[in-house]
Amino acid sequence: MEISTYETNPTEITFNIREIVQLKSLVAYFQPIMSVTGKKVLGLEGLIRGIIPGSEALIQPKQLFDAAAAAGLTIPLDRGCRDAVLDGFRDYHHANPDLLLFLNLDTAIIDEVGGSNYLCEQVSHSGISPKNIVIEINESKALNTRELTQFVDNYKSMGFLIALDDVGAGFSNMDRIAELKPDIVKIDRSIIQDMDRIYHKQEVFKSLVNLTNKIGALIVAEGVETRGEAIQVLKLGGQVIQGFYFAKPGHDFVLKAELIVKTAEVVDDYKALLLRELEDYNQKCLAYTHTVNGMIKALAVVDHPDEFDGQLEKALINADTVDCAYVLDESGIQCSDTVGAKNIGACEKLVFHSAKIGVDHSIKNFYYNLIKRKQDTYISEPYVSMATGSLCITYSRVFRLAAQKYILCVDFLETQQPHPFSL
Hints:
- Helix 3 (74-95) runs parallel beside helix 5 (118-126) and helix 10 (227-235) packs across helix 11 (257-299).
- Helix content is 38%, strand content 21%.
- By secondary structure, the chain is an alpha/beta fold.
- The two termini are 35 Å apart.
- An 8-stranded mixed β-barrel has the order 1-2-4-5-6-7-8-9, surrounded by 5 helices.
- It folds into 2 domains: 17-247, TIM Barrel (Alpha-Beta Barrel); 276-413, PAS domain (Beta-Lactamase, 2-Layer Sandwich).
């Protein structure tokens, strides 16, 4: 059993690990995992604390397991922790038979015990159905891939659910997702933290949501601590959240109505955000259209495409919101240089470079949607420009010169604003 990475570890205390293991001086803590859109508690993650015999002093999980590893007692401690969690979960299970228990497993011990089925026997003895148990594994700690795969296949065949924990942290192997075919993927706090402010984290999370949706798995965002992070999870396609924002782990956890109220508040805030963003987007589009109309007007008066560069440079002198602009011919070949207003060349990294005359853009969305789908205008999602390294969107529009069709592509700068609910 592991502690979540976002729990703190207070000052270490002295204790006898053999005595703790022998007496099973352990107490189960639980943290709710919330289905925000479902407005319900989906499950509880079972965590553990050691208790120094004869006192009320608690031993934090990391200290407990570090001591067990040093003494060669990892396996008996791991089993004792699961007994404590299963016993503590029983009352919650009776109150709500649909509630899931997320049960941590120290994956490193699989290399030693293999398919002993000890966990299955523990669950059977507890009287809790395997369908209510989610076995959380951190695949990076298992050295023997074959043993791990056999373990997962064996327990899935018996009705247990499998969750990959801490995905996105450290050296997590993404290929294991395809290999183990988990039912649930838990995204680590390192991705979630400040995700409402950091574009790159948003794109990583969005990719993981897309992946899990396509393989039929459920994604859980771990370590959500602020309302802004919770709303961003919803915005990017996540629906299940675990973290301090809803509740800290506790040994006397109660399925409180306040938790459900909080999910409803997050959903309402998200809806309000969508309306504001739609309004902002419409205003941006009006401004984009005004700028592009002016540029097309300037381009449409030239005698030859060779004059496109000069007209773009004039049009962009005062265009503070434009990163760069260029023109394609009807076949998608760039027929002007990439002309920049403010940021062209600002990024000195060699990976970023502006496209030159003659580059083929015919497979790109901003060309394909206009010509092949016969649209007049295309506006892309935000992305990092390979011309300048800036976050931008591409606005492309068809125009004509001397009966020939051309496409104006304008990259507008996007700014990553702080989330209104994270302030």
